[in-house]
User: Fold these one by one.
Assistant:
Number 1:
Amino acid sequence: MTASSLRRDDADLRVFDSGAGFPVVFQHGLGGDNRQIVENFPDSPDYRRLTVECRAQGRSTPGSVRPFSKAMFADDVLAACDAKGIERFVVGGISMGAAIALHIATRHPDRVAGLVLARPAWLFGPAPDNMRPYAEVADWMKRLPRDAARAAFANSATADQLRRQAPDNLASLLGFFDRPDFAVTADLLGDIARDGPGVSEAEVAALRVPTLVIGHGVDHAHPLAYAQKLAATIPGARMVEIPPKAIDKSRHISEFRAALDHFLRVNFPAREPNR
């Protein structure tokens, strides 16, 4: 795996490039980084995996352009593909990464050979209810100092509900209070939680590429119903339900990798040329 930097506006983006086969552009979730993709992507030399750590995440700097948006991150990903000479690719991602992938697939269908939507947190519109806790965390961050903001959210009705129904989601949300750049994190969470993929249901229904959708239960941020809806909307999409990460993380990762590996091998069996 090689790591390089890409300058976009006044942001420095970290780009990871591994393998030598058919290109698969795979993006992380909100607050994630390349390590999340390494954990979930199958180990295979048959595919060239490209991941861009989005602005203000991983080792990429935030830059000064606001608001953050999935369209901005999608443009950054395409710029990285251009810089690497990658013209056509499978695009996919986890959570926010799935929304970025969906945006790219609908806006640049000539460049997309296949699509993977894993644990989707958005359907078609902005600010879905499942992302409200992220917006709430951002609001507390903007109103109070770090420790007071963490305490206020931890004692909120939202946190109490998640503590009972989705403790894994709560742990993730509380982790945002420990990030070093508090103000940037508040901007990132608020902007992305209130944003959408920038696509319509009709545009998604018009997709005509091999598609894999991965979903699971016991997850407030990534409703299984969202995965099922996207799989039903995209013609010919394959839906795979895997064990919830909150219940059995090792099986979750194992079955995630297996589903993705099977999809790639069935639909892109050879080391096809990039162009």
Note: The chain is about 45% helix and 20% strand.
Number 2:
Amino acid sequence: MQHIIRTSWFLILLSFIWLGCKNNSHTYRPTTTIIEGQLTSSEVPIIVLSGDGEIKSTIDPSGKFFIQAELKNAGIYSLVVGDQRLHVFIVPGDRISLTADVRNLNHGAQFKGDHANENNYLVEYENLKLKTEPQDFQSFFGQKEEEFMTSVEKRNDEFVSDQQTYQKENGPFDELFAEMISEQIVYDAAIIKMNYPTYYEYLYPGSAIKLSDTYDSFYKTWKWILRIT
């Protein structure tokens, strides 16, 4: 039961973050956009670009693929091969090249071309989220409020520090992409904080948790972001 709850929490989290990114999309005139590349270990012959609907393309026997689409929105899209999914930042008119192993798209994927800096960081960011995922459900959600909030903020600080270090080494992000990553961090923390009372009471049946008067202050930032996306 504990494993099911822990898994469902992160499924909800990832879904919510994806919706947040979609709502941030900027509209352009439809412009030819190309995503191409070389994939290894693919057991399916189809790759799908998902975002503004679905655009399917074939993966040839050597692993090469070529997607040409008329896109009008800039934002976070997904490349889907079988049950594997890789997020990719696209601005209409981009030409993006990807090299990856389909067995695990989020490890070792390499981007070249337009917005390669942003997309290579997106791979790093997705891996950092998994790396910083709480390993012990009970010790994380069983903390008292003050310790719990400290743990969440420590995770946030690690995301922010990683972004700053990456940009110092590789150059600044596209302005829209930078906004999206910052908002994802806020969403991530908000979902965790929102689930805290429920999970704490699950771990300690019969103990009605009493939160501080300021606990739900994170909703203000969350709602503000929802208004501007």
Note: The radius of gyration is 19 Å.
Number 3:
Amino acid sequence: MSKRLFDIIFSITGLLLLGWLIILCWLLSSIDTRSNGLFIQKRIGQFGKPFNIYKLKSMKAINGVKTITRFGNFIRKTKIDELPQLFNVLIGNMSVVGPRPDVPGYYDKLQGEHRKILELKPGLTSLATLKYANEEALLAQQQNPLHYNNTILFPDKVTLNLEYYHNHSFFGDLKIIWKTAMSLLRKAP
């Protein structure tokens, strides 16, 4: 109950402080991508239930190929594209701290002890988020990014998220939030 109360206070505060930035970047993303600047995608949530995650759009189709735009690259690097997820936290299908939600075919396919991760609400940040803050760059260096994700990254994320499941606490969450904020400040342009 205290985690949910914290999530509500955090998301309302975040939306009040950053709502102007979300709206401005949504408008710029709409212009940049020549479409609705809001990206909505099905992700796997708590107890394996799918939900819609909200992000700012960072890609547009050029000759049928999806490409990250210059503005899209900026909002991805600064994680501004993730800010609409404060709304996901407010409505209760995400938490501030918890395993990052993945597309169908990953967390929903876990077996045995690993399925305990699904008891947690997905989060804006996590131990795995901190460890793999440069995941896109890491995957771009791989000859077969999908294979690398499926055999190296995803299993390690499962291990980190299971560790969080067994050891999470309010003060542990605050520590993860602090580390995430410091990581974002170091990346700021």
Note: The longest strand covers residues 38-44.
Number 4:
Amino acid sequence: MQSDLVFSTDRLTVRRWRESDYEALLAVYGDADAMRWVGDGQPITPEECRQWLVVTGRNYEMRGYGMYAVERLVAPGVIGFCGIVHPGGQEEPEVKYAYLRSHWGQGFATEALVGLLHHGAEDLRLQRMMATAAPENTASHRVLQKAGMRIGELRTDADGSRTQVFYWVAPGNAH
């Protein structure tokens, strides 16, 4: 049986999603307060959650990567999710993450993101990745910058909303 471990850090294990992650996925992405910063600002529905598990499985098959579950090494249970995706079919790989609010402010997001960027560059040969965040989401801006991402343009989306873009280029690449 192939391991679903993607990478680990000093405090975290990051692995591929399992069907058993459904409840944790719903707990993280179903949190209305936390999701005000994600996508359309609405929490995920149970049906969208089930569909996302299917889509993520397809991403693993098609691209070799997708979203991953994050667990602490010292305690069982998923504390959040991170991954590399291509939302809406965009060409450039984009890093995403979300955590249970009980695990915010402890450096887990930054630690996992550093590992994710390294995994993307070293294992997947991705030389450039991006991230997006709401302009008002300064906590996420700090996470992205601490992980080594550079602030990019402030983009106006089709619906008139604004999105702050961040970029990361693998060490040794000029652009």
Note: Strands lie at 5-8, 12-16, 67-72, 78-85, 94-99, 128-133, 150-156, 162-169.
